[in-house]
Amino acid sequence: MMNLKIYAEKNNYFNHLARTWDDMADSARDDMLALVFERIDCPQGGKALDAGCGTGVLFPHIMKKIGASGELIAVDCAAEMIKTASEKFCAVKNIAYRTAYVEELDEVPSSFDAVIAFAMFPHVEDKLSALKKFRVLLKETGRLYIFHLSDTAALNKFHGSLSSPVCHDMMPAKDALEDIMKNARFEIKEYIDHAGLNFIEARPCT
Fold first, then answer.
1. 111 lies in which domain range?
2. Residues 102-129, mean pLDDT to the nearest whole number
3. What are phi and psi of 153, to 5 degrees?
4. What is the CATH number of the domain that holds 64?
5. Which residue in 201, 176, 185 sits closest to 132, CA to CA?
6. Are the C-beta atoms of 186 and 144 separated by less than 8 Å?
7. Is the pTM of this model over 0.85?
8. What is the largest CA-CA distance in the chain?
9. What is the pLDDT of residues 144-179, one digit of tens each?
10. Which of 25, 49, 143, 200 counts the highest number of beta carbons within 10 A?
11. 2 pLDDT higher than 70
């Protein structure tokens, strides 16, 4: 069940950071994201969901995959993140923006080729509900990608060190994640967890 009080606190936190979020960007991060996207399958003309899109860090990489004929749905629960992203990419016409919690996202079922969640899954309060929503939205041939540019242990240690509403937001360990995925009718096809990268590819299953 979603805890709206906690989400409100997180929204305030991320809204406050929206205008300075891109200050953390550098060429090394972008190069690493380009390498990660070599593992991501979404066809030209396809439809992708950027879940927790923030200020649009992934948009250029997703656009290289789907092209001008594709469709990107960008969702974030922090309105200022969406505002910043939409201003940055106002010239790109095949991006639609949603200010919403991913657990409650209202999109056409079985319509997405890829759901991509970068640096957002630990912040989801009800992870099972979010995964079930992703399962509903994905085509049977689609793929779910969850990743961070950090291993799980380092990521959780970093979140735990923060004096902020996200200090309890942890990425599940592999065994726990597999159980949640199974309950949401996903099968993990690839799992990487080493220094500099935690990457999960999952496919829908019955």
1. 4-20+28-204
2. 96
3. -60, -45
4. 3.40.50.150
5. 185
6. yes
7. yes
8. 43
9. 999 999 999 999 999 999 999 999 999 999 999 999
10. 49
11. no
